[in-house]
Specification:
Length: 156
């Protein structure tokens, strides 16, 4: 007999460009086959991949990933219309590198009905910051320390 386990959210990140939508179609097909669309978010820095997954399976949640780069520093990224980029590829969420997640930008994203996820956050101070900014989730390398701090703060 198969034991029931709690349904945990899953995040699938495409780390490379699409292969003529073949990989995107395979991932979308697997999500449909296993009936897990309600708990999966497919994300990528390549917004064409995000758009392709959404076109293949409109019920699949998608996220547009953004990071600062040497060729595109954080100050410049903030000026780019991230909301417009995410909307064009039909993303449900925007995943921001923590250096991009300013109060002003997270507020702008929330007002446009996009959920905000911040990565990679390894400092417990981010827990309160995320709550005050309406951030949906934090991605961390050290969940144990973040959970311990969150639970300690909640008990106070």
């Amino acid at each position: 007999m198969r034991r029931r386990t709690r349904s945990l959210p899953l995040r699938a990140q495409f780390r490379m460009g699409g292969d003529g939508e073949r990989l995107e179609a395979e991932v979308a097909g697997a999500i449909r086959k296993h009936a897990i669309a309600e708990r999966v978010v497919v994300s990528s820095f390549n917004l064409l991949v995000v758009q392709a997954v959404k076109a293949i399976g409109s019920a699949i949640r998608t996220a547009a990933l953004f990071e600062p780069r040497v060729s595109l520093p954080a100050t410049l990224v903030r000026r780019i219309k991230l909301v417009e980029l995410a909307k064009v590829c039909e993303a449900d969420e925007i995943c921001l590198h923590h250096t991009l997640a300013s109060r002003r930008l997270t507020e702008q994203l929330r007002k446009s009905q996009l959920e905000v996820v911040v990565w990679t956050v390894d400092s417990p101070e981010w827990i309160e910051r995320a709550r005050s900014r309406g951030v949906k989730a934090l991605i961390t390398n050290d969940p144990a320390i973040m959970l311990r701090d969150r639970n300690t703060r909640a008990a106070i």
